[in-house]
Amino acid sequence: MPQVSPEVRRLIDRFGRFFGEVGASRATGRMLAWLLIADEPQSLDDLVHVLHISKAAASQGTRVLERTGFIERVTVPGDRKAYYQASPDMSSAIVQTSVIKMDEMARLADDGIRAVGEENQTARQRLARMSRLYRHIRKRMPEILREIETEEE
């Protein structure tokens, strides 16, 4: 097992705290951090050992990260275990996940406008602004991804 420097350990912990703050598990954030910097694909046992998390947390986290496209399952010749690595197409997965969330937030704001009715103009204005914001961000996301991919070429 690799030695993890204090700097890398702090980075891993920061990812964990960030994921915890946005409603995901800290273990999931820590796994993503490790898989982003690991030189080789990692098994659940590797994740448990390096990150000091339970096997259940590792299993649940890999399912979440795989479902969102942040990581992918790979095979290692001669080994029957499942291994995981950061997805090479993670940027697209992040944009795709964000687009879905932006669409959902805009729909919620639109539903809110209908729900508050005509009499509450203050609420209608706030919700309309929220809807415009999320629709604008959502519209720009594919363009931003194209810009980033162009810079990488």
TrEMBL record:
<keyword id="KW-0805">Transcription regulation</keyword>
<protein>
    <recommendedName>
        <fullName>HTH marR-type domain-containing protein</fullName>
    </recommendedName>
</protein>
<dbReference type="GO" id="GO:0003677">
    <property type="term" value="F:DNA binding"/>
</dbReference>
<dbReference type="InterPro" id="IPR036388">
    <property type="entry name" value="WH-like_DNA-bd_sf"/>
</dbReference>
<dbReference type="GO" id="GO:0003700">
    <property type="term" value="F:DNA-binding transcription factor activity"/>
</dbReference>
<dbReference type="InterPro" id="IPR052362">
    <property type="entry name" value="HTH-GbsR_regulator"/>
</dbReference>
<keyword id="KW-0238">DNA-binding</keyword>
<dbReference type="InterPro" id="IPR000835">
    <property type="entry name" value="HTH_MarR-typ"/>
</dbReference>
<dbReference type="InterPro" id="IPR036390">
    <property type="entry name" value="WH_DNA-bd_sf"/>
</dbReference>
<keyword id="KW-0804">Transcription</keyword>
<feature type="domain" description="HTH marR-type">
    <location>
        <begin position="26"/>
        <end position="81"/>
    </location>
</feature>
<dbReference type="Pfam" id="PF12802">
    <property type="entry name" value="MarR_2"/>
</dbReference>
